[in-house]
Every structure is written in structure tokens, then in C-alpha cells.
Amino acid sequence: MISRILPLLFLLVASSGAHAFELLTEPVSDDAYALVGEIGPRTYENHALNNTLGFVVTPDGVVLISAGASPSGARLIEAAVARVTRQPIRWVINVGAQDHHWLGNSYFAAHGAEVIALARTVATQHDHADNHLERLHRVLKDRAADVRPAYASRVLDSDHATLQLGGRTFELIWPGDGHFPGDAILWLPAEKLVFTGDLVFHDRMLGIHPFSPVADWQKSFHVMAALGPEHVVPGHGHPGDLAKARRDTGDYLDWLIKNVGQALADWKELEETVEMLADAPQFKHLKFYDSWHRRNIHQTYLQLEAAQ
Ligand SMILES: [Zn+2]
Fold first, then answer.
1. I need a surface site. Which of 13, 57, 114, 191 has the fewest CB within 10 A?
2. 54 CA from centroid of ligand 1 (Å)
3. pTM of the prediction?
4. What is the pLDDT of residues 201-225, one digit of tens each?
């Protein structure tokens, strides 16, 4: 009898385990890793970890880039880091103001980490906190019960701050606004590695919101590219090189500004412009092309028209 039950139990355990969401750990350069979350939307199952985070292991502890959207997500991040190193997470750097970059701060702060961010990033976090909390409660339900906004304990009143953490040099840079105003990038000059936050989307189409100043975003991308990174860990998608960042984000921003700008110069109407530009085969490899491309043309048109 037991011999019949055991395989069944094993199957049940194996199948329940198969559905648990895990971040994918991808080595990037010496002691630096990307933690790749869901490429798709936020869900209860993925703990709203539909973004890419990163970490760097130093002899004095781990530097974590982005904190996830909740304490439950933070525990998954902590578990992923623990599979690579026994070092504790000692510093958390917030490179953005969107929920999944910072609403897990409270968990890491309670476990002894210092949370670091630029003042500009913190200001935008304050602006969007209520809205993001409300949305998170709808998605995460009981898992959102303990989400509390916890802001950086070390706020840097600078647009280009150099940090020495665990014997390594990190530069926290505001390259100009992007997906959210005040978003930052983290540059490791010795490794030529950049954690871009939501400045760069890989593998999926970026989304331009009314609060995402697209002309600034385009310029900010070029500021990042001018650093000459060899490794790019994006805010969404798998890590890659600068050529990939250009293909999936920079070229698209350039294309939008150029083509929507030309349509406006030609006095095309909004609807006409969206129809005219709806087919852009060079970006169809990006996930969510169908749901985001037209919206992005629409939003770019409104922003460029308002700036005229
Ligand atoms: Zn994001």
C-alpha cells in the first residue's frame, strides 16, 4: 500500500512546487547578477515581480538593486540571493519610483539593510505611492496586507553620486527623466556594467505613460549609452549588451520621436498618425507589441504636440 501512496505524494509535492514563482538568476560579470522576473504583467502568483532586479556580492555584504513590490516579493529576492552567497543584503539601491523597484524596502530595512536613493527618485516615489499601493492591493490581495512605503534612509541630494560599497565603486546617476521622472541608473565603471532600471526594456515593448516624458527618455537613453557599457541589466527583460538595449529600447524611442515628430510637422491628425505608423516590423519581436505600440504612438503624439 505504502509503495502505491509514496509515488503519488511525490507527484503532488512536485506539481505544487512546479507552480511556485521564482526569479531567474543570471550571472552578468564578476560577482554581479541579474534577477529576472516575469516578462508579463503583475499577478498574485508572481508577487508583482514582473521586472528585473540585480545584485552585486562584495566581501562586506550584498548590494541589491531594486527591492521588489512587497515584503512577500522581498523574501523571494532574499532566497534567490541566498542561493548564490551567504553574505547578507547590506545595501538596497532604489533606481526607480515604480512599485516593483522599492515597495519591498521595508522588509530589507527591517533586516538591517541601508536603503539608498537619489532625492529625485524619492520625490517621485512619494508622488505615486498611494496610487501604486491601491493597485497592488487589487493584484496581491492578502500578500499586500503588509506593504508599507519605506523611503531611503540615505537620500543623495545629487544627480551623480559616487558610492564606495564593499570595496567597489558604484555611481548612482540621474541621466534625465524616463519611464518615471527621477528614475536613476547604477553604473559600475570598473566592470562597465549598468543597471538601468526602467530606462531600458529588453524583450518586451516599453510603455509610455502620460507621466513618462518621451523626449527626455530618448535623451536619457543616449546619456546611458555614452557611458559605453559592456553589460546592460535592464528594468525589464534579460540582461544583454548595448546593442540589445539599442535594438529593444533606444532605437524605438528614436523611431517614435522621428516619425511622430514628422507627422506633426506634416499636420497629420492623431488618428491618422497612429494608423500610418501602426506597422513597425523592426519592433515586432518585442512582447506586447500588439497591446503597446499604438498606445505609445498616441502618447508620443500628445506629448510632442503639447510641446510645440
Ligand atoms: Zn518597471
1. 13
2. 13
3. 0.93
4. 999 999 999 999 999 999 999 999 9
* Confidence tier at 93 by pLDDT (50, 70, 90): very high
Ligand 1 center from residue 296 Cα (angstroms): 16
Contact 213, 303 (CB under 8 A): yes
Give the C-alpha separation, 270 to 282, whole Å.
Answer: 22
d(CA 223, CA 25): 28
The grid coordinates of residue 280 equal 513597425
265: number of Cβ within 10 Å: 10
Q: What domains sit in the chain, N to C, each tagged with a CATH number?
A: 21-241 (3.60.15.10)
> Ligand 1 centroid to 88 CA: how many Å?
25
On whether the CB atoms of residues 81 and 55 are closer than 8 A, the answer is yes
* DSSP character string of the chain: -HHHHHHHHHHHHHHHHHTS--PEEEEEETTEEEEE--SS---TTTTT--SEEEEEEETTEEEEE---SSHHHHHHHHHHHHTT-SS-EEEEE---SSHHHHTTHHHHHHTTPEEEEEHHHHHHHHHHHHHHHHHHHHHHGGGGTT------SEEE-SSEEEEEETTEEEEEE--S--SSTT--EEEETTTTEEEEEEEEE-SB-----TTS-HHHHHHHHHHHHHT--SEEEEEES--B-HHHHIIIIIHHHHHHHHHHHHHHHTT--HHHHHHHHS--GGGTTSBTHHHHHHHHHHHHHHHHHHT-
How far is the centre of ligand 1, averaged over its atoms, from the C-alpha of 170 (Å)?
Answer: 21
